[in-house]
Amino acid sequence: MTSDAVPAHAPLELENFLPYRLSILSNTVSQSIAEEYTGRFELSMTEWRVMAVLARFADLSAREVAERTRMDKVAVSRALARLVEAGRVDRSIHDGDKRRSVLKLSEAGWAIHDEVAPLAREHERELLARLDVAEREQLNRILDKLLAP
Amino acid sequence: MTSDAVPAHAPLELENFLPYRLSILSNTVSQSIAEEYTGRFELSMTEWRVMAVLARFADLSAREVAERTRMDKVAVSRALARLVEAGRVDRSIHDGDKRRSVLKLSEAGWAIHDEVAPLAREHERELLARLDVAEREQLNRILDKLLAP
DNA sequence: GATTTATAGTTTCACCTGTAACCATTTGCA
DNA sequence: TGCAAATGGTTACAGGTGAAACTATAAATC
């Protein structure tokens, strides 16, 4: 039996490494939702996120959309260009500040939103169905803590 | 006061929508770890993931790396090309199956691993420091359930 | 044993992404 | 007022990414 002179390496156990587990879970969930709307509506995930924010908060500027979605402002700018082009978002210019845009869902945008939102909620429901009531509360509390600034 | 003839839209409350919260958390965490090694070691996130898997399980094939990292096989192929080129991974050919490659970290690869791994663990520690012991156990149990196939 | 089918891995293509540079407008301040 | 600094948003560039096609090898079937 050889003595262990050289200290052993200490590889991460990825399967127990929290950042890794979060990444796998998040990608799996987001992608399974995205699969449902990308095909049906020619809607990218970033576009959907922008629409979801505008559904909840009207008359935001592009910068505010970026803040709320935590997306890059360039990504938002491009998503908005496509959404406006497709007639899903109405863009006007802010009174008194010609740099700011004022954004809201169009009728067509709302129509899509009203189909996609329940679908997204259904996925969330399926995911949460794996947990009991106590666990759901725990998860919410834990996420609140981990997401706090 | 106008009567509400048209049914109201029901926008998602993104800030309480589980898939969205998971996505924000996962991106924030992964990126803050990545910031530490991308600059210092010219190492992309996908490359690091490949290295982490090869640290834990030697002599995998590219396909097995893809399975374990849950990355696309094309992404793995390219990450491996860069890692082999940089001398961080040794690639040989499987005895008895000339299609398979046999991958392992090189000395240089291990040296980098041994610097990055503690750094990643430290980030995990900082994140978990926001939770008490009970919450950490709860989180683990919950993630086990949500990640089960 | 020859031929079809499956598998490992790479390349191509079309697109998405972030960083940095940029333009227009507004704000701060001397 | 005039001018520097800050801000909202877009564009250019340099990668990174997945789907599909492709090459090489192995396994299955006849």
Low-confidence stretches of chain A: none
Q: Which outline of chain A best applies?
A: globular
Radius of gyration of chain A: 21 Å
Mean pLDDT score of chain A, rounded?
A: 92
The number of helices of chain A is 6
Question: How is the biggest beta sheet of chain A arranged?
Answer: 2 strands, antiparallel
Estimated structural class of chain A: mainly alpha
CATH superfamily of chain A: Winged helix-like DNA-binding domain superfamily/Winged helix DNA-binding domain
Assembly annotation = homodimer
Strand order in space, largest sheet of chain A: 1-2
The N- to C-terminal Cα distance of chain A equals 52 Å
- How many distinct domains of chain A? 1
State the helical fraction of chain A. 55-70%
Order of helices and strands of chain A: HHHHEEHH
The CATH topology of chain A: Arc Repressor Mutant, subunit A
Assign the CATH class of chain A. Mainly Alpha
Total strands of chain A: 2
What would you say the CATH architecture of chain A is? Orthogonal Bundle
Describe the structure.
2 copies of one chain form a homodimer. Chain A has helices spanning 18-41, 45-56, 62-69, 73-85, 107-128, 133-147, and strands spanning 89-93, 101-105. Chain A is mainly alpha-helical and 149 residues long. Chain A has one domain: Arc Repressor Mutant, subunit A. Chain A has a two-stranded antiparallel ribbon with strand order 1-2. In chain A, a hairpin with a 7-residue loop joins strand 1 (89-93) and strand 2 (101-105). In chain A, helix 3 (62-69) crosses helix 4. The mean pLDDT of chain A is 92. Chains A and B meet through helix 1, helix 2, helix 5 and helix 6 of A and helix 1, helix 2, helix 5 and helix 6 of B.
